[in-house]
Specification:
The protein is mainly α. About 65% of the residues lie in helices and about 0% in strands. The radius of gyration is 22 Å and the shape is globular.
């Protein structure tokens, strides 16, 4: 969202070494305490929750295309999508570290308008994604408590869980980071038990099933589910200003989280599909809990339910942190008004960014889970196409720029690496429903209007912006 001045130097993208940051309004400032930097382990689990958070949510892929295609999808898709996205993130996040991440990259590559559009698409996809996590949590809880299936109880549960989780995020990124570590370990425990109990019951022939006869393949749902469960590797880039030694931490964290994430999906799916006979129409969000009951008993069902709730908490916190610090980073480089970067005096968290992201998430929480992830995927695809283009252009534009981590390929190889996932992004856009097209077009239009409105506000001096661009108009080229 928003506009920005001309290209700014790396030093302006950071908050002057986390110096006392500012502001209670657009024109008045208050001193805040220094942030504690995130270490490697919490960054790994923040990435894990931004991408996956466990096997929860993967069930729809089996319902849409059967066990074989699902297993192959979670085996192959990381190589054609997740690895290229993670490599791009590792190079750009270490080369241009700063809160704002991909917004900074697009701004440096193509200028303020495309930096603004990147901010709009990625921020909107992120905050809409927030709405999916309470909905997913309620889908699991309704297996045990049917009162949450529909109506006011469901809406109230989503409302109060969203508000509570946003308040937890407000208490500090370090708290969120180490909470993610604990939640990640605990939420995976029931799947470890499920896998061990399943081993004697597994029939390998079930893994090669193409699905039940008479059940039509839903490829749109299948690919959207794969995409939703294996994307967002770049979200952690918006926290670069809060990470200890990001040039070293990011490559290690992305590699560790990538292995961890892919194994968690594959092992759980192999266990569940191999140990039970296929009833494909029942494979929808929340079905892992019922499978646990069939394989081991109700005690494991309840444990999976608890794990799902904990995983959703971790996913929500990681995504909200990414969105809130993206807003903070956009304020630091003048893309949005300075007041959008205000931090809490008590916790040093970007409280206004947290509030904005929470309100947008609540506004779209009435949508169905399928519509939420389809809209998220559409907007995210637009942003990723721009991100790949920014990556390639920055390699060409600044070939001598020092890159602490560099993807070990020449430019033609990088083009091929980016074209393959880009083809899938185009597919996600093409197969979207009319509702998704309408929602995405409306939100993109709002982003464009916001950009020009911010330009007007800056020209008329109605609102105060960070003046990052005037003194470094030529800095982009000095890299």
């Amino acid at each position: 969202m928003g506009t920005s001045p001309q290209s700014s130097s790396e030093c302006t993208l950071l908050i002057e070494d986390e110096k006392q940051q500012t502001t209670t309004t657009c024109t008045t400032r208050t001193t805040t305490k220094k942030s504690k930097k995130l270490a490697l382990l919490p960054v790994i689990f923040l990435i894990y929750f931004e991408v996956a958070g466990g096997p929860y949510g993967a069930e729809a892929a089996v319902g849409a295309a059967g066990p074989l295609f699902t297993i192959l999808g979670f085996l192959i898709f990381p190589f054609i999508w997740s690895i290229p996205e993670a490599l791009v993130t590792a190079e750009l996040a270490t080369t241009f570290p700063g809160n704002g991440g991909f917004v900074i990259w697009a701004h440096k590559a193509f200028g303020p308008f495309w930096g603004s559009m990147m901010g709009s698409w990625k921020l909107l996809s992120g905050v809409i994604n927030l709405a999916s996590y309470p909905a997913l949590c309620i889908d699991y809880l309704k297996q045990v408590l049917p009162i949450f299936s529909s109506g006011y109880p469901r809406y109230l549960a989503i409302l109060f869980s969203t508000l509570f989780l946003s308040f937890l995020n407000y208490t500090g990124l370090t708290v969120v980071g180490y909470t993610a570590v604990c939640l990640g370990i605990v939420s995976l425990c029931p799947f470890i038990v499920l896998t061990l109990v399943s081993i004697p019951k597994i029939e390998a022939s079930r893994w090669i099933s193409l699905g039940q006869k008479g059940v039509e393949k839903n490829w749109t749902l299948f690919f959207n589910t794969l995409f939703w469960n294996l994307n967002s590797w770049d979200n952690v880039s918006t926290l670069a200003g809060e990470v200890d030694q990001p040039q070293k931490t990011y490559p290690r964290a992305l590699l560790s989280a990538g292995i961890f994430t892919c194994l968690s999906y594959l092992i759980a799916l192999l266990a569940a599909t191999g140990a039970t006979s296929l009833d494909q129409k029942k494979w929808a969000n929340g079905y892992f809990a019922n499978l646990a009951a069939m394989i081991a008993g109700k005690w494991l069902k309840y444990w999976v339910e608890i794990g799902a709730v904990l995983a959703v908490i971790g996913q929500y916190e990681a995504q909200l942190s990414s969105s809130a610090y993206q807003i903070l980073g956009m304020a630091n480089i003048g893309v949005v008004p300075r007041c959008f970067g205000v931090r809490s005096k008590w916790f040093n968290t970007p409280w206004l960014g947290i509030l904005i992201a929470t309100l947008i998430a609540l506004a779209v929480s009435y949508m169905t889970f399928a519509d939420i992830i389809s809209s998220v995927n559409f907007l995210y695809s637009l942003g990723m196409l721009l991100e790949f283009a920014s990556f390639l252009w920055l390699r060409r534009k600044t070939p001598t720029k020092k890159r602490p981590y560099k993807v070990p390929m020449p430019l033609p190889g990088l083009v091929i690496m980016c074209i393959i996932p880009s083809a899938f992004l185009v597919y996600v856009i093409v197969v979207a429903s009319k509702t998704v097209y309408l929602v995405s077009a409306l939100l993109t239009g709002i982003g464009i209007i916001w950009y020009f409105f911010m330009n007007l506000c800056k020209l008329k001096e109605w609102i105060e912006f960070e003046n990052a661009g005037e003194k470094d108009a030529d800095v982009a080229d000095e890299d």
